[in-house]
Task: inverse folding
């Protein structure tokens, strides 16, 4: 089978874009935490790359897309034929039409790996400031094995949800609802941060937040347009819809802030952009541009209010994973049952209520999938988190939490705030001294 070099080149680029999103998430989350825990927060994203990559090559691809050597696809989990990825070396994946758009199987596998990585990393934002690093590593391995790989198989690997007709173009259910439900479970397992919600726990570096949001926005084009697995009109539609929905959501969040709080903030525009990216993810290849704008605007406004749920319900979701990813993912997934038109697809896939035969069947399926996946992820994450907490412990000591998790766990600090002394050989030691006149002394 001949490889389509154009498709292959695009998919390699898209894979790199999606992988870049995890360091982008590290900046986004890192900036939102307090200065004493920024390194730990960023480390939780980076170690997700390590853990999930090793699990993927050993059994993750097989559990998600593998078979047992027969023609029937398992309903609930893949097979073991591709364990170790050795069987994928040198093989080619057929394109959408069976010829053309062909790419090496390893490129497809690498692309899907990057989705698994960032899904795990997303969860970490809910437990910022208070989780043991080793316990997080153990949880990440257990959750990706027991939850992400099976759920991805259900929706994208030919499993039971795919057979029923559930649609998820790039991961609204598989990635965002999945991660958001797990984040909610861990927030309950670890409990509230010391002093929350009475003490202000503001982002320590909004520049990091904006940088992270920008990297996520950039990488998301690979996330969404790449999910077409081809270079065609649907990929172009997904690309444009991603931009439109994200901009609309960021604008909607700013409007909510302006009328509710009196100020439009940098944290708001960053959070709104991510909310739009989340909501358009399941729908980007299936809706018209006007619908993408409407979806983004609605999602931005809903998520702007959704982040306040933690204060009303009493769970400490540190960085609003639930309010943005779970809520935004649900909005995007359900929207397919209303506005999906599949404008460039020659397919019999279900259309939304306002198109086709105006049937509510697809809407029902798009409600079913978030409920099933959300409940499954929450339950397994809670059990897994509780088991870790009861054995090796999941939460750091109170003293370490107060003093700062970076020093306590990693023996590092993101910022060297120690005073400089003359004679150390540093630039500070040779800086021109400031004259001490009466005004300086008075100001001091």
Result:
């Amino acid at each position: 089978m001949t490889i389509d070099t154009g498709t292959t080149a695009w998919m390699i680029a898209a894979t790199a874009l999606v992988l870049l999103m995890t360091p982008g998430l590290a900046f986004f989350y890192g900036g939102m935490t307090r200065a004493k825990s920024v390194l730990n927060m960023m480390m939780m994203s980076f170690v997700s790359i390590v853990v999930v990559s090793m699990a993927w090559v050993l059994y993750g691809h097989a559990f998600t897309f593998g078979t047992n050597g027969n023609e029937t696809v398992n309903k609930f989990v893949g097979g073991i034929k591709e364990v170790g990825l050795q069987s994928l070396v040198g093989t080619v994946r057929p394109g959408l039409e069976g010829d053309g758009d062909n790419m090496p199987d390893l490129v497809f596998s690498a692309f899907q790996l990057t989705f698994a990585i960032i899904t795990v990393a997303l969860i970490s934002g809910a437990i910022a400031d208070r989780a043991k690093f080793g316990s997080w590593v153990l949880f990440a391995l257990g959750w990706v094995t027991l939850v992400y790989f099976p759920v991805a198989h259900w929706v994208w690997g030919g499993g039971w949800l795919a057979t029923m007709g559930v649609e998820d173009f790039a991961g609204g259910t598989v990635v965002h609802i999945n991660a958001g439900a797990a984040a909610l479970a861990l927030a309950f397992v670890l409990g509230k941060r010391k002093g929350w919600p009475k003490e202000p726990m503001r982002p320590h570096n909004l520049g990091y937040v904006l940088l992270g949001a920008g990297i996520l926005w950039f990488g998301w084009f690979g996330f969404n347009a790449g999910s077409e697995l081809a270079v065609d009109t649907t990929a172009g539609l997904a690309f444009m819809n991603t931009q439109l929905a994200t901009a609309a959501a960021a604008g909607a969040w700013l409007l909510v802030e302006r009328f509710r709080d009196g100020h439009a903030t940098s944290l708001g525009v960053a959070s709104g952009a991510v909310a739009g990216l989340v909501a358009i993810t399941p729908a980007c290849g299936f809706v018209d541009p006007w619908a993408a704008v409407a979806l983004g605007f609605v999602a931005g406004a809903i998520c702007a209010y959704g982040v306040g749920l933690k204060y009303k319900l009493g769970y400490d979701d540190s960085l609003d994973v639930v309010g943005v990813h779970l809520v935004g993912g649900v909005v995007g997934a359900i929207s397919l049952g209303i506005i999906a038109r599949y404008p460039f697809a020659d397919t019999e896939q279900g259309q939304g209520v306002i198109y086709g035969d105006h049937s509510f069947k697809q809407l029902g399926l798009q409600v079913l999938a978030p409920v099933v996946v959300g409940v499954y992820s929450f339950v397994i994450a809670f059990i897994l988190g509780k088991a870790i907490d009861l054995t090796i412990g999941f939460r750091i000591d109170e003293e370490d939490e107060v003093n700062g998790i970076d020093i306590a766990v990693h023996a590092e600090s993101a910022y060297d705030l120690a005073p400089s002394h003359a004679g150390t050989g540093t630039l500070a030691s040779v800086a021109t001294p400031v004259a001490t006149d009466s005004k300086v002394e008075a100001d001091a």
Summary: Residues 5-405 form a domain with the Ammonium transporter fold fold (CATH 1.10.3430.10).
